[in-house]
Design brief:
This protein has 508 residues and is an alpha/beta fold. The chain has helices at 3-16, 27-41, 47-65, 68-75, 81-96, 112-132, 138-144, 148-155, 163-183, 185-217, 231-249, 256-261, 272-306, 315-324, 342-356, 376-385, 412-425, 439-445, 449-468, 483-498, and strands at residues 105-107, 221-223, 269-270, 330-335, 361-364, 399-405, 432-437, 472-476. It is elongated, with a radius of gyration of 32 Å. Residues 159-165 and 502-508 have low confidence and may be disordered.
């Protein structure tokens, strides 16, 4: 999947997972997009090709209904002219830089070119440190992209009289912007790095060009001065800095006696050989390394743009792939010492449908009683392997939810055993989420500031226990939660679980 297809896919996902009725997109539209993509790509098409084709087709219909969508896509596209514009500006700045200063004397120890080389060497050292330290270059870019959701929300602001629909569109586009910023971090970080490398090259070339142009119009003399250094020390420094250029050009460096004679104030020496040495040194230290780094970033950029690393194993995409293969999407829910109300059951069905597609089926098993937590794995395995379970083929499931109540204090010996047993029994590759239902907790304690603090403390306790065992957790009030927030909470937990689907041994 290339960059454009990945961008369209993420936008369509944000659109399809928006709360029901908030955007102009229905279950019939979803079904049409899947059918049209299957016809276009063929029934035997790989999941990636099917998902990309479906996104392109769905995006065309969405754009017809919402003009803000094409504008949002264009707003997030990389503009190549930015790199060339910055390079041109850097070239002009380099030309305007006076490497010699106002005096007609070239101080060999203090030209701006020397500072330019030191700066670039510091950049290389910092890059090597980040590489060996395993730090990502995408972090700063993600922070730069943080204002995008707000800008897209303003871009999608609806006309008067359509406020509700407009809010839904703006929310979906803001979510898309956030997801695209995360997904494209590496790609755009590489583009920014390439732009900076090219700008550094342009600045250095501009500085060199300005130096030679001034040398054509004015006669410069070369010398040096220092409070603390003598001729021997200066020759050692120049040997390190200009030695490689001297070896390449054949321009020899003077000995200590000759350098002593060049000490300022004094007549100095002809500046032309020193200008040539500094020019070659800048080429070796700045131009060639930066050019190699820019070429590497360009190669990585083209590779990532052609094969965009979109996580197609996440539940939403996996559900589309199963639908394309004609497989039922089933979510198995096993409660522990908790009987969800009818409203909670319906909310759970709605959440799964929004996250995994309208064809998703929920199989809600009978609750596991307190004291039987070690039997949860057997119960789960039996339900999954039972022929015709929820209309699915035996052994298939899109996800597994371990449903617990937030009113219970998390206990590793009971709740931990319950979740661990399910994790060990679930099929390979099937994500498991510990779904903490907060409906009974809110009904008991209310939602005032004191109750909210108690709720956060209870969440923290559950998070600590589940994180220690390597399980993803989602906290949802199944009876009263705002749909968009609940979908976001459960969707993020499913994504985390999908990235780590192998059973994790308990930390107990």
């Amino acid at each position: 999947m290339n960059e454009a297809d990945a961008r369209a896919t993420l936008l369509v996902r944000a659109w399809e997972t928006a709360p029901t009725g908030s955007v102009p997109w229905s279950d019939e539209d979803r079904a049409w997009a899947s059918r049209a993509a299957a016809r276009a790509e063929g029934e035997q098409a790989p999941p990636e090709a099917f998902i990309a084709a479906r996104a392109r087709l769905a995006l065309g219909r969405i754009a017809e209904r919402e003009p803000a969508v094409p504008r949002a896509l264009r707003a997030l596209q990389w503009r190549p002219w930015i790199a060339w514009a910055l390079a041109a500006v850097s070239l002009v700045l380099g030309l305007a830089t006076d490497a010699f200063g106002a005096s007609r004397e070239v101080n060999l120890l203090a030209p701006p070119l020397l500072a330019l080389m030191v700066w670039n060497l510091a950049v290389y050292a910092a890059s090597l440190f980040r590489r060996f330290a395993g730090r990502s270059a995408a972090g700063p870019l993600i922070r730069l992209a943080a204002p995008l959701p707000g800008r897209l929300a303003r871009l999608a602001a609806p006309p008067r009289g359509t406020q509700e629909a407009g809010k839904g569109t703006a929310s979906a586009l803001a979510r898309f912007a956030e997801e695209w910023a995360r997904a494209s971090g590496r790609l755009h970080a590489g583009r920014v790095a390439r732009t900076l490398h090219l700008s550094a090259i342009a600045f250095a070339l501009g500085a060199l060009a300005g130096m030679y142009l001034r040398g054509l119009a004015f006669a410069y003399r070369a010398g040096w001065e220092s409070t603390f250094l003598g001729a021997e020390q200066v020759r050692a420094i120049l040997g390190v800095v200009l030695g490689p250029a001297s070896a390449l050009t054949g321009i020899g460096l003077p000995d200590a006696a000759a350098l002593q004679a060049m000490r300022l104030p004094g007549p100095g020496a002809e500046a032309a050989p020193w200008i040539h040495l500094y020019a070659v040194t800048v080429a070796l230290v700045v131009v060639l390394p930066r050019l190699a780094l820019a070429a590497r970033e360009l190669a990585n950029e083209r590779r990532l743009a052609a094969r965009f690393p979109l996580p197609l194993d996440e539940p939403y995409f996996a559900a589309l792939a199963r639908s394309h293969r004609g497989e039922a999407t089933t979510v198995v829910v096993l409660p522990f010492n908790h009987r969800p109300s009818p409203d909670a059951r319906q909310a759970l069905r709605d959440l799964a449908s929004r996250l995994l597609g309208p064809a998703t089926r929920i199989e809600l098993l009978d609750e596991v009683a307190y004291g039987d937590e070690d039997q949860s794995g057997a119960r789960l395995r039996e339900a999954i392997e039972r022929p015709g379970a929820s209309g699915a083929e035996p052994g298939t499931a899109a996800a597994v939810f371990a449903l617990v109540s937030a009113t219970a204090t998390p206990e590793p010996e009971t709740h931990g055993t319950f979740v661990d047993s399910m994790a060990a029994a679930r099929p390979a590759g099937v994500p498991l989420v510990a779904l903490v239902d907060e409906s009974a907790f809110v009904a008991r304690f209310g939602d005032d500031p004191t109750a909210s603090r108690r709720r956060e403390e209870r969440r923290a306790a559950w998070r600590r226990m589940l994180a220690a065992q390597g399980h993803a957790a989602a906290f949802v009030d199944l009876e009263r939660a705002e749909p968009a927030a609940a979908e976001r909470e459960l969707g993020q937990a499913l994504a985390r679980a999908a990235r780590s689907t192998d059973p994790v041994p308990s930390a107990r």
